[in-house]
Write a structure and sequence with these properties.
The protein has one helix at 63-67; strands at residues 4-9, 30-33, 36-39, 44-45, 48-49, 58-61, 79-87, 96-103, 112-119, 127-131, 137-140, 151-158, 164-170, 176-183, 218-220, 223-235, 241-247, 253-263, 270-273, 276-277, 282-284, 293-297, 304-319, 326-333, 343-353. It is mainly β. Strands 15, 16, 18, 21, 22, 23 and 25 form a seven-stranded antiparallel sheet that branches. Strands 1-17-24-19-20 form a five-stranded antiparallel sheet, with no helix packed on it. Strands 7-8-13-10-11 form a five-stranded antiparallel sheet, with no helix packed on it. The termini are close together.
């Protein structure tokens, strides 16, 4: 069976996407109070009222209220209290603001809490950690945040040996744009033995992968799956980003997949192969209730720009006759839009379909 070997890339690109049509800024539909964010008005469709979906084990905080240290009275059962701690700058470390979640263990729930954090662009990164009351750190996430784009990061925190969880924010925490905390539990899923799936199901149907990509090319019958690049690169408002890979034999067709952040589903990246245009890419979009969606109005117009500040999965079909044995070059760019922003791509994989 023909195999694919990883080459590498290098170059630069980017731009942005905006949602035309009427989009109501998410914040305009909500009133904020000490309990977090609640619907201002009950929407109505025709004669029937729309019921509000209950979320007794999830809380969506209002960033302004929590940073102002207003009391959080309506908390899920698993969450005892929420508090804020400001740490002044010291030698080798800048000022930080921490949001502390004191947790209560419930037997029917899994010992994991999902913290979804939205951050505006700026200097410094955030992280999530778990601690015992004696001051022992039992978990710390990788730092996250960007100097050029809004980001939304989901961290699943194990707290079997912890008493509280902390979200550490740079400086006074003013870059916090959204914050959601949810309890998790195990459930049985029936699936084919030979085809394992990701172990974590996203609450909002996000199709991004939670397991590391395999560095080894894998063959299933007449399909080859290969990782082109496990890292990430930025797409700038102008320019292109080139990625090269090698194949030994031309396939019937191919399917390119990758994940993108700070993008709009209306206008996915433009991908060309060996200077030839490709069909439009397909984006797997999460539920619009996901706090990672961010809508902003364009001044002087009735239009809005809506972006997903987390990671979305994108798939790109490639006709086989556009691929050539040897080195092939993917060229990424972003469409020209009214409000371009930097976007990020990661986890570039390709499937090659061959004759039996």
């Amino acid at each position: 069976m023909p195999s694919l070997t990883k080459s590498t890339r290098i170059a630069i690109v980017s731009t942005c996407f905006c949602f035309t049509a009427a989009w109501v800024d998410a914040q305009s539909d909500f009133a904020t109070n000490a309990e977090g964010i609640q619907p201002r008005n009950t929407p109505q469709l025709g004669e029937s009222l729309v019921k509000v979906q209950p979320t007794p084990f999830t809380i969506r905080f209002d960033p302004n209220s929590i940073l102002a240290e207003r009391p959080q009275t309506a908390l899920p059962l698993w969450l005892q209290s929420v508090s804020i701690k400001h740490t002044p700058a010291a030698v080798g470390k800048g000022q930080t603001t921490s949001v502390r979640f004191d947790i209560r263990r419930i037997a029917s729930l899994a010992p994991f809490i999902e913290i979804r954090t939205g951050l505006a662009p700026g200097i410094g990164k955030a992280c999530v950690s778990a601690w015992t009351e004696t001051g022992t750190e039992v978990f710390r996430s990788a730092p996250f945040g960007s100097g050029s784009e809004f980001v939304s990061e989901s961290v699943r925190v194990p707290f079997a040996d912890a008493d509280y969880i902390e979200l550490e924010l740079p400086k006074n925490g003013e870059r916090l744009s959204s914050l959601t905390a949810a309890a998790m539990r195990y459930s049985q899923v029936l699936r084919a033995v030979d085809f394992p799936q990701d172990p974590v199901a996203d609450a909002f149907g996000n199709g991004t992968r939670t397991t590391p990509a395999s560095e080894t090319d894998r063959i299933l019958w007449n399909r080859v799956l290969a990782l082109i690049d496990s890292g990430s690169f930025l797409l700038q408002p102008t320019g292109t980003q080139n990625v090269e890979f090698d194949i030994s034999t031309r396939p019937l067709c191919a399917l390119l997949s990758f994940e993108i952040r700070n993008s709009s589903g209306e206008a996915p990246p433009v991908v060309r192969l060996n200077e030839s245009p490709l069909p439009s890419a397909s984006v797997v979009m999460p539920d619009l209730a996901d706090p990672a969606w961010r809508g902003t109005s364009i001044p002087g117009t009735q239009l809005s720009v809506v972006r997903y500040t987390g990671w979305m999965r994108v798939q790109q079909y490639i006709p086989g006759d556009l691929l050539t044995p040897g080195t092939n070059q993917l060229i990424f760019s972003l469409p020209t839009l009214s409000r371009p922003e930097t976007e990020e791509i990661r986890r570039l994989e390709i499937q090659l379909k061959y004759k039996r």
